[in-house]
Amino acid sequence: MSKRNIITLIFIVTIKTILTAISFNSFTKKETVKDIIHENKHEQVNLNNNNTTKLLEKKVNGKFVLPPLPYKYNALEPYIDAKTMELHYTKHHQAYADGLNKALEKHPELKSMSVEELITHLDTVPQDIRTEVRNNGGGYLNHSMFWLMMSPHSGEPKPELAKAINKSFGSFGNFKQQFNETAKKVFGSGWAWLCLDKEGNLVITKSKDQDNPITNGYEPILGLDVWEHAYYLKYQNKRFEYIDAWWNVVDWNHIENNYKNAVDKISKK
Ligand SMILES: [Fe+2]
């Protein structure tokens, strides 16, 4: 091989090595960015939640579809297991979306309404689909709210809500104890809630099945699903263990925003 050919060969090998390295780095970088975007999605959601309707529902061709889950199925481990998250989101939440769409097929005039509007004004929903909308619309809305109320980055209650909780319940410990008792006492299937009432007071309430407090004029801030489907795979009949574990995944940034939005809404009523 001539000296010139050897130099050409070395040149080609060097260029090829550089191109391979660039390609590998790009791929790695792309994957990393994708992961970061996925991991940060929840925070992005929290930062832009002034229009809550956009976060709580998604429509494609006039049909309700599931809003994206803001974290991976295993993100809330070990407190909420991946299998429960997957089934809860893909089967239970989906079933409520399907049920709501089916009910609304009978009344196309309601199709432009948001799920919040439907649930807030249930008394105006035609009688023949009211129960279906109440159960399925409620289930759709409750779960959309619930996913956003949780995060792998929990922390502590943020200043404004923490101050309001201390004022209303004496301490965060007292509030947590009362909330836990309420959640424990839900008979059968339902939810426990922290809400603002019509006068702007913080109150702990519970609701049956998939009823949402907005139907009764409350503004929900924090909610806990105590249907067995939310915990049975991991906790079996030990609901209290699930309730206790759940506090580790409450997204206090989002709950603070919920509180501020609720105060704002109540003040405008
Ligand atoms: Fe549920």
From TrEMBL:
Enzyme class: oxidoreductase
Domain Manganese/iron superoxide dismutase C-terminal: 158-257
InterPro entries: Mn/Fe_SOD (IPR001189), Mn/Fe_SOD_BS (IPR019833), Mn/Fe_SOD_C (IPR019832), Mn/Fe_SOD_N (IPR019831), Mn/Fe_SOD_N_sf (IPR036324), SOD_C_sf (IPR036314)
GO cellular component, one term: cytoplasm
Binding site for Mn(2+): 88, 143, 225, 229
Pfam families reported for this sequence: Sod_Fe_C, Sod_Fe_N
Family: Belongs to the iron/manganese superoxide dismutase family.
Name this protein carries in UniProt: superoxide dismutase
Lineage, broadest ranks: Bacteria, Candidatus Babelota, Candidatus Babeliae, Candidatus Babeliales, Candidatus Babeliaceae
